Amino acid sequence: MAQAKILIADDDILVREAVYKILTMFGHTVVSCASGEEALAALACDFDLIILDINMPGLDGFETLKRINDCNYGIPVIFLTGAGSMEYAVKAINLGAYDFIPKPIEDLDIFNIKVKRAIEKRKYVLQEKVYKENLESEVRSKTRELAKKNRLLEEYNEDLEVSTLNTMLTLQTALEEKDMYTAGHTNRVTFHAMNIAKALHLTEKEMTVLERACKVHDIGKLVIDVNYIRKPGPLSDEEWLLMKKHPEIGANIITPLAFMQEEIFIVRHHHERLDGKGYPDALGGSDLNLLTKIITVADSFDAMTSMRSYKKNMEPLTAIAELHRCAGSQFDPEVVRVFVEVLDSQI
Ligand SMILES: [Fe+2]
């Protein structure tokens, strides 16, 4: 049997010394105490077994056991019970004692077996504790590892999203740069729309969606014959019909991109009007969300103030007057009000 560290408490010096001798004879290390108080003072988590007398002056065995239990060390306790006191033995077990040994100790083999069994129980409890701690530590480590992998995956996803968006923006910018009249349009629309969004205190998520939508709002023009865009003079009815398809085409282009699902609506409806007379679906009023209403105002303002091949650009003040005139019919009045405030602060 492996050597164990045992705490004994008995006020009877004869019993105490007899138990001490037996246990040390079996190779155990023994700390011997004359009372419950002394035993509690000597108690430490590295004991493998506690042997307690029941009747002791001061703290009796039961009270001492309660306080030992409060420490939660999981050390098994064996009670020493006088002959015929079965009632005490039952009470001790009910209080959480591991076993009891009648005294005087007459059968050394039984004593030894009971002590050995209690020590094995302690060994098992400690092994279980170590196993549980190792398991918890392993779970924590795996959770950390998983969180790290998730972070890497998220970063990779973000990189992929940014790269895709940048590629589309490059294509759109290339298209705009071919035509001196539209050069820089997307960047200016994004700039105006983000200023309105900030003034309206939109959330970070809404700002991200709006910015992405702005960057690709005219991406549908990529598949329309650029000669129309660059054509001097006004477009014919047929050319206009084709040009008016660009919001739908743009929405279709970004539909396969899983991270752009919220932007699809904005791109498709950036030429709708509040009064429902816009295109492609003649949506109006509350059918249009705030982000779409913002891009509509920003887009129209830039279209009015940029030089077009077939008409001269408007002065900012004239364009602002036009925004006011169309507030409530084409544009959302609150968005116009906020945008004009932003523009005023920039002049
Ligand atoms: Fe457009």
Verbal overview:
60% of the residues lie in helices and 7% in strands. Helix 6 packs across helix 12, helix 6 (185-199) packs across helix 14 and helix 13 (316-326) runs antiparallel to helix 14 (333-346). The protein has a five-stranded parallel β-sheet, with helices on both faces. The radius of gyration is 42 Å and the shape is rod-shaped. The model has no long low-confidence stretch (mean pLDDT 90). The protein has two domains: 5-129, Rossmann fold (3-Layer(aba) Sandwich); 178-346, Hypothetical protein af1432, CATH 1.10.3210.10. It has helices at 13-25, 36-42, 61-71, 86-94, 108-177, 185-199, 204-216, 226-230, 237-243, 246-254, 261-268, 290-305, 316-326, 333-346, and strands at 5-9, 29-33, 49-53, 77-82, 99-103. It has 347 residues and is an alpha/beta fold. Fe (ii) ion is lined by residues 217-218, 246, 270-271, 299. Fe (ii) ion binds at residues 217-218, 246, 270-271, 299.
Give the termini distance in whole angstroms: 92 Å
Mean pLDDT: 90
Q: Report the portion of residues in β strands.
A: 5-15%
Assembly state: single chain
Query: H/E element string?
Result: EHEHEHEHEHHHHHHHHHH
In CATH, the topology of the largest domain is named Hypothetical protein af1432
Instruction: Just name the CATH architecture of the largest domain.
Output: Orthogonal Bundle
